[in-house]
Design a protein that fits this description.
mainly alpha, 0% strand
């Protein structure tokens, strides 16, 4: 039997699952170690990991954590990161599969790939390639890259 004191406060308070999941996500992400030397790719990976919709809340949580630790709200170059994130978002960079110039249907039709986890892994690798270099988000370039990935998987 589990002691009721050992349950999570969000469970005892009967928070909606979506709210609980959001809080857990923010708490897990808030201890990032930003350095001004991060590349633009690293900033895009950070945004993709955190999620666009959680960025403002994450920055507010980090500011509160900084204050609670006796630091300035923007400690850890938080203002610099916030500016860099804003610049990437203003550039409309692709941060998830939905923004790719191809989708699973394209890969199945053009390359004869079957639906399933393998297709998902190729899409994830295409996304990573586009996060690393947004200029690669062209249908022809992604199909060529996916072709080489599929051939690599087959061998």
């Amino acid at each position: 039997m589990v002691d009721s004191c050992a349950t999570r406060p969000s469970e005892r308070l009967r928070w909606p699952h979506a709210e609980r999941d959001r809080v857990v996500h923010l708490v897990r992400q808030h201890m990032f170690g930003y350095q001004p030397s991060w590349s633009d790719t690293a900033v895009r990976r950070f945004i993709a990991k955190v999620g666009r919709d959680a960025l403002d809340d994450l920055f507010r949580l980090r500011e509160a954590d900084n204050i609670g630790s006796g630091s300035e709200p923007s400690a850890g170059h938080l203002d610099v990161l916030r500016s860099r994130v804003a610049a990437e978002l203003a550039a409309n960079v692709v941060l998830d599969r939905h923004g790719l110039a191809v989708d699973g249907d394209d890969l199945m039709a053009e390359l004869g790939l079957a639906p399933g986890p393998g297709l998902g892994r190729i899409l994830d690798r295409l996304l990573e390639a586009v996060i690393a270099d947004p200029r690669r988000n062209r249908r022809d370039a992604l199909l060529k890259l996916a072709r080489s990935m599929a051939a690599e998987r087959a061998s």
